[in-house]
Amino acid sequence: MMGLVLATAMVSPVVSPAACLATVPLLAVNPFTEPVGVVHYLIVGAVLFTAGIACMTLKRNALGILMGIELVLNGANINFVAFASPYLRADGAPTLGLDGQVVALFVILLAAAEAAVALAITLNFYNNHATVDVDRADDLKG
Amino acid sequence: MTGMLDMDIMDISTLTPVVPPLATTLAALSALPIAGINWHSVLFLLFAGLACGFAIGVVAADNVVRMALYLVFSLGSTAGLFFLAGADFIGAMQLMIYVGGTLVLLVFGVMLTAQAPLVSIKPSSSDRMLTAVAGASLLSLLLTAAFSVDAWRGPGVGVVPAPSATPLGMALVGVRVDEPPAGTPVGGRVGYMLPFEIVSVHLLVVLVGAAYLARAKRRRTPRPIDALASAMPVEPVAPAATVAPTGRSAGGAKSALVGGGR
């Protein structure tokens, strides 16, 4: 696709920026007038997933890591809901149907359960070590 | 009155002496290039921008209270995205369980552990660089995968789907009332009765376990937080009888006295 864009830009001597943008998918259409598709939701899910992974790797506060886990689960949930929706496909045939929504519901419930247990563990760790810095949780290091 | 309701914008603009503000407003609106605007797409862009921006804000913020606040906004905007995708029940559950339950839990955790040096633990700049590189590569991989399927790219049909709460509830008790997709074998779909029961028992076990883990308990050994508190000289002159020796029995008795009320 990028090669096609470059070839188009090289063949035509004078290319307006609008014509250049029109060869890139998703920029050729006006986002305010075109209905959204599955890929729009996938972009949002990818951004939330990446932010969650970055949060889990970057933060040293245990609660920050928990928030990263919540973001990751939400990014996955957005993908499930997008694949479940018949509204977003051009042919109106969703990939998952209602099953995607059921799985998203289970993910929300399991995330709540995970947050409860992880928060209890964090509070226990705080009571024992007077900190929530995960870099200082090295009691089990051999 | 019914004749006025039947009129379109052009006819209303002829009624300028009767209702001048409304007619001029409508004429001005029809002159603006908003006629072809898909409001579903506009709302999607709004909620998507809020969700992505606040998610990046969670990563960028160092203060844990601000991170919790940004997470509330990000998850709330995600609920808006669920509504726009036609998953109304999932959006409501997102608001009630995530924003109303999980995040209240997280904010309580933040408040219980928000000592002054722990509110903002800053990562090192080399960690930031490494995370930025890893995140950018992961994001490019995910976006490449998202754009790689043509069927996902096309604009939607724009059909407003039926409310999904009833089929969802029926599927959770084991009866599928939603329309099966093409190619489904006869009797090839099952309900979600067993996962529903497993999840409910799982939630019960988890809540009992969380209450067990976070309960107030008497301690045999002094906690570092108590040692820290007892190391600080609160009273200028301590009587000789209350100066705790470093022996295990006396320290244990003291810490049990201190920690018993928690």
> In CATH terms, what is the fold-level topology of the largest domain in chain A?
Helix Hairpins
List SSEs of chain B in N-to-C order.
HHHHHHHHHHH
CATH class of the domain at 39-123 in chain B: Mainly Alpha
CATH architecture of the domain at 39-123 in chain B: Up-down Bundle
Strand content of chain A: under 5%
The description of the largest β-sheet of chain B is: none
Largest interface, C-beta within 8 A = A-B, 85 and 97 residues
Q: Please, what is the oligomeric state? A: heterodimer
Q: Rounded to an integer, what's the Rg of chain B over CA atoms? A: 30 Å
Structural class computed from helices and strand pairing of chain B: mainly alpha
Helix content of chain A: 55-70%
What is the end-to-end distance of chain A? 52 Å
Any low-confidence stretches of chain B, pLDDT <50, length ≥5? Answer: 1-10, 15-19, 240-262
Radius of gyration of chain A: 22 Å
Number of helices, where a helix is a run of at least 4 consecutive DSSP H or I residues of chain B? 11
Count, helices of chain A: 5
Quantity of strands of chain A, as a count: 0
Give me the secondary-structure category of chain A: mainly alpha
Structural commentary:
The complex is a heterodimer of chains A (142) and B (262). Chain A is an all-alpha fold and 142 residues long. Chain A has 5 helices and no strands. Chain A is elongated, with a radius of gyration of 22 Å. Chain B is mainly α and 262 residues long. Chain B is built from 11 helices and no strands. In chain B, helix 4 (39-60) packs antiparallel against helix 5 and helix 5 packs antiparallel against helix 6 (88-112). Chains A and B meet through helix 3, helix 4 and helix 5 of A and helix 4, helix 5, helix 6, helix 7 and helix 8 of B.
Describe the structure concisely for a colleague.
The complex is a heterodimer of chains A (142) and B (262). With 142 residues, chain A is mainly alpha-helical.
